[in-house]
Write a structure and sequence with these properties.
Helix content: over 70%
Shape: globular
Strand content: under 5%
Number of helices: 5
Order of helices and strands: HHHHH
Structural class: mainly alpha
Radius of gyration: 20 Å
Distance between the termini: 50 Å
Length: 179
Amino acid sequence: AVEGNPDPVQQRGKEIKRMRKWNALISVLILALFIVHAVSGTYQMAGILPGGSSFRKVLAFVMLALLILHAAIGTILGMETVRAMRKSGSFYLRENLAFFAQRISGFAMLLFILAHLLLFYVKDSPKFVLHDFGMQQLVVSILLVTCLVVHLVFGIRQLLISLGIRSFSEILADMLFVI
């Protein structure tokens, strides 16, 4: 690189590192919103919470927007990785099992989220109201949660690294220190 001009390869590496960090933060937000969404939906279906919360509907759409952003960043980062694999001449499928499992489960999750929206969302209501829970909703929910678990299991290590945490034991030590 010419003096004063940054090396394009180093610049791209910094951009990718920033995208990974943002994607990790978005992942944590999505997970938190998913837990709130699942618990409030469960309580609403059980009759503990009343239906018709516009706040919960807004949270659901915020989570959807974050999911779309997460998918877009993940696609960009995934394409970069595939480019690097192609450039090296080998995909090392067995060694990159986590990479491919995470991408496949993420894509499947997007399809099940779409199905979830079509099965649960009441279009004309300004508030968060659920349809009756039947066999279709149960099957879609189980498949969605299964994809989520696979996605989390294969992605947790990258998430921790992106957040600057080297291992789960480091998180556990930090939590025990705080307690």
